[in-house]
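Backbone geometry:

***
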Amino acid sequence: MEKLHIPVLLSEVLAGLNPQLHESYLDLTAGYGGHARSILDVTRNYKSAVLVDRDEFAAEYLAQEFPPTTTIINTDFYSAVLQLLQCGKAFDIILADFGVSSPQLDMENRGFSFKNDGPLDMRMDRRQSKTAADIVNHASERELAEILIKYGEIPSGRAHMFARVIVHHRPLRTTVELAELIRTRIHGYSKTHPATQVFQAIRIAVNGELEQIEKTLPLLPKLLNQNGRLGIITFHSLEDRLVKDFFKEASSYGEESPLKIINKKPITAESEELVINPRSRSAKLRLARKRN
């Protein structure tokens, strides 16, 4: 599994968060433990580590791979943050990687990718009822267009055209079926598949991703110890804009600010990593420190 999921910006995360022996660690999107494994190799503090993921496969894997003293929480990161605050927890290091994990993309039955034919699912937490098929086959044409515009950043005219085509060809049942329907409506060459933004938009809507981030970010300083470090990795402009604006706001009150920004510009992957892990090409790391 470790080979299937290569953690992005690993060396940059380690340099920026600078883990030290015995420090406590919270990973809000632990996935298959790539970042966590490297950070905990340094801190050696498994007892105070908390690894969160709402994907049950990831949570089960984490429970098998890490010592039993490590706390594994199988829920979304917003719910986990509320739970930890209620328990009075605080950490020296917090990391959140908001990207979809490679195993999720590669499992055709999860329906995240059109590279493998599978059901229109896209649920990060399969305990929830709403799937991509529910949105694709039951949302109104107007609702679909709004989702594509808001979460896929698709121009209004094209979004409405896609929504109209989807509604006309319903029911749609598989990822390839939806992707091919979109592809046939776009003429000319494109570096990325025309359905990429459509899938992004539907996935975000299914999982409430941006709403989760918006609710979680203001709570994170409360979970940091003094001089604690916060690292957040994003993969598209919608996520990064939320994080950028939050960091700017949380550091804008001078000495009264809860956070101090460590890197003014987001850190991106070096050329060597891009060759090994193409998924890292859109990754951006932002770092901040809790003020004394």
Summary: The CA atoms of residues 89 and 161 lie 49 Å apart. The radius of gyration is 20 Å. The longest strand covers residues 224-234.
